[in-house]
Amino acid sequence: MIDRREQILARLRVLIGTIPGVVKAARNGDELSGLSRPAIFLHDAVEERVDTGGGGALDSQEQLMRLWPTIALLMGAPTEEIGPAISELRRLVLLAVLGDAELRTATGVPARKQTIRFESLAVTTEAGETREGRADLVFEIDYVFKISELV
Fold first, then answer.
1. Selection from 23, 139, 20 nearest residue 71 by Cα
2. I need a surface site. Which of 16, 21, 130, 145 has the fewest CB within 10 A?
3. 20-62, pLDDT tens digit by residue?
4. For residue 27, is it left (φ>0), alpha (ψ between -120 and 50) or beta?
5. Within a 10 A sphere around the Cβ of 3, how many other Cβ atoms?
6. How confident is residue 102, by pLDDT bands cut at 50, 70 and 90?
7. Between 35 and 109, the higher pLDDT residue
């Protein structure tokens, strides 16, 4: 049995756990307050079928799907350091995710047609002597869904 969606999300969880200096890495974490920082959380993704315009070439048995997982970066740092700290953590996550061959293989999409993209970033900070910062990185990942692989 192969569940490509789960393979992709599990691989992303492994990757965020390899980021140097991160105190906590988790998937779908419920309680984010009071944790040591920096922390990274993977939030499971929205997914939908991609219209390939192939005139019925793909059907319910085999479809191209698009997944949008979010990786949340949580930081605590003095006010003047929060921006650079978030930027550095973002850089490390982008390198890990966008450069990972195992993640690309998990998609089941041929190399010349693979889509693993950094889609967006939203940053929020809390005021105070020490700032709390959060950056949500959204990725776009296409993968092949085959009903026969779920058996």
1. 139
2. 21
3. 999 989 998 765 555 678 999 999 978 998 877 765 555 668 8
4. beta
5. 12
6. very high
7. 109
* H or E segment and range at residue 94: helix 79-98
Check residue 94 and give its pLDDT: 97
Of 97, 39, 103, nearest to 73 by C-alpha is 39
Q: What percent of the chain has pLDDT over 90?
A: 54
- Sign of torsion, CA 138 119 96 47? positive
Residue 124 CB coordination number (10 Å): 9
* Sequential DSSP letters for 23-53: SEEEES-S--TT--SSEEEEEEEEEEE----
pTM of the model: 0.88
What is 4-49+61-150's CATH number? 3.30.70.1700
d(CA 5, CA 146): 11
Closest C-alpha to 76, from 89, 60, 94, 91: 89
